[in-house]
Amino acid sequence: MNKIFEIPLYPYARHPDQDAATPALRKVVIVGAGPVGLAAAIDLAQQGIEAVIVDENDRVSFGSRAICFAKRTLEIADRLGCGTPLVEKGVQWNLGKVFFDERKVYDFNLLPEGGHRRPAFINLQQYYFEEYLVNRLRALESEGAPVSIRGGSKVTSIENRGDHVSLVVKTPEGPYTLEADWLIACDGAASPTRQILGLDFVGRVFEDNFLIADVIMDAEFPTERWFWFDPPFNKGQSALLHKQPDGVWRIDLQLGWNIDKEKEKKPENVIPRLKAMLGEEVNFELEWVSIYTFQCRRMEHFRHGRVLFAGDSAHQVSPFGARGANSGLQDTDNLIWKLKLVIDGEAKDNLLDTYDVERVYGADENILNSSRSTDFITPKSEQSRIFRDAVLDLSEHFAFARPLVNSGRLSMPCTYDASPLNTSDTLTEAPARARPGSPCPDAPVGSGFLLDQLGKGFTLLALNAEAPASVSIGGIEARTLSIATTKELAERYLGAATSAVYLIRPDQHVAARWAQFDETAVKSALARACGKDL
Fold first, then answer.
1. Is the separation of the CB atoms in 176 and 152 below 8 Å?
2. d(CA 22, CA 197)
3. Distance between CA atoms of residues 172 and 304, nearest Å
4. DSSP character for 198?
5. What are phi and psi of 300, to 5 degrees?
6. Interatomic CA distance for residues 377 and 26, integer angstroms
7. Residue 1 in this model has a pLDDT that exceeds 60
8. By CB neighbour count within 10 A (0-12 exposed, 13-18 middle, 19+ buried), where does 155 fall?
9. Residues 6+ apart with CB under 8 A from 136
10. CA Rg, the chain, in Å?
11. In 99-232, which residue ranges form alpha helices assigned H by DSSP?
12. Using N-to-C axis directions, what is the helix angle for 35-46 and 71-80, rounded to 10°?
């Protein structure tokens, strides 16, 4: 059994801030050292912005928890400098299969086209994901980046004082006061930060429970996502099977609503369920067991003055679809470049209101998809069940029915169609997948890939078009990337157009596009994209 979660990676150590005569003021304090908080700190550190993580724990999460990390998350991790170890350790997969009763009704490929650096998904235990992020943070710290992590440090009080935030941090050696220009709350679904500030979620809690069991076993199941509706080993319910590294397999079993959760988690009740699924002859060992309830909820707003919420502290969705950690990293990817512009004085702080606008939109999209998945997986009426079962029967023989099957619409990056940072699209003959607000599709470029060349700031991507080396407005520069147009680039960025110029944000979302370079139009779009017109 893997014991990495028993090893302190960031043990408590007394910090000079605890002995300061007046409270130390830090640029950004992040509450929570899970994947989202670590990603935010790394992103800030790489851009030279001071970031301090405080967490009451001193080690990575117990149990595998989140395991499915989507292509977009891996692309974000590449920019954080730790994508490769995640992919090398993770189990890569693109194929999923859907079963009804005992028969396979169809399979699907999440990445049918080539020319992408990263796979559709990897499966990787959250404790490994966190370990690699901690390693990256430590590497940046050793290189002199202004980042640190303080374990054994629990925030017990928060005051939002308008121009800064004041915190009381409890440690094994007593409490101390710490101040921050900005506070990012990444402290999970139970979010003490949210509770301290008297804030809450709005949304739905579904009347159903699911057992998660991570088991260590030698098995011959392929590296695919298998989902069962009404299987013989869990009659009237559903089941899910995923492979993870180190011979660990994730199994989800629907249990229903009126259950005794503590009783159901006991090995003597879990093991017979697993044997019914896997077969009496299969030897396995339990690594981690938990029970979760479907919830689709979010805060009304993710920004509260100088306190910003990200990840599960801001929103919750049911696990089917892998939208938790994946959407959390999209939160920080959206937030940090905007926060940098504000901290550097290049943008007014109302740019951060667009973080709220865009990521609330993203959360609502996830909640809608997750709610639909939940309603399909767990029909709430006999009529709904009859419809679902008919769809499953039809999907075995007819392709038209397969898009109606919803075993958990898998995580996709959000397109911010209505973002106030977008400029109206004037290149409508180009593919819709690269319209303003959308994440940039990857494509092969020379011996590498496009996303690796976009950099960390604004980029002008020029395809079959002339453009200057850069365009600036105020202190903000968009660097031009002119590259030869490959087949994949043409398919993903030109379509029926013969040339294109794209303005791409630091988070690799398209802000604007045109057929040719126009200095006035580009400067206007750049001003809008960095919030100068808000």
1. no
2. 24
3. 30
4. T
5. -65, -40
6. 47
7. no
8. buried
9. 42, 80, 81, 82
10. 24
11. 126-142, 192-196
12. 40
* 296 contacts 317 by C-beta, under 8 angstroms: yes
pLDDT at 5: 74
Q: CA 385, CA 163: separation in Å to the nearest integer?
A: 54
Residue 49, C-beta contacts closer than 8 angstroms, at least 6 positions apart: 27, 28, 146, 339, 340, 343
Q: Which of 342, 330, 341 is nearest to 36 (CA)?
A: 330
Biggest CA–CA distance in the chain, Å, is 74
d(CA 323, CA 66): 9
Q: Which helix (H) or strand (E) holds 461?
A: strand 458-463
CA distance 366 to 373: 10
In this prediction, residue 322 has a pLDDT band, given cuts at 50, 70 and 90, of low
Strands 303-304 and 307-309: antiparallel
For residue 426, give the amino acid letter. Answer: T
Under the banding of pLDDT at 50, 70 and 90, the label for residue 114 is confident
Q: Give the DSSP letter of residue 439.
A: B
Per-residue model confidence as pLDDT tens digits over 436-453: 999 999 999 988 999 999
CA gap 223, 228 in Å, rounded: 16
Strands of 312-453, DSSP E = 315-316, 444-445, 448-449
Q: How far apart are CA 385 and CA 100, in angstroms?
A: 13
Segment holding 290, helix H or strand E: strand 284-299
Cβ burial of 210 (10 Å; 0-12, 13-18, 19+) is buried
C-beta separation of 57 from 9 below 8 A: no
- Six token digits for residue 350: 């109302």
Secondary structure letter of residue 488 according to DSSP: H
Q: At what angle do helices 352-377 and 324-343 cross, to 10 degrees?
A: 170
- 258 C-beta neighbours (distance < 10 Å), count: 7
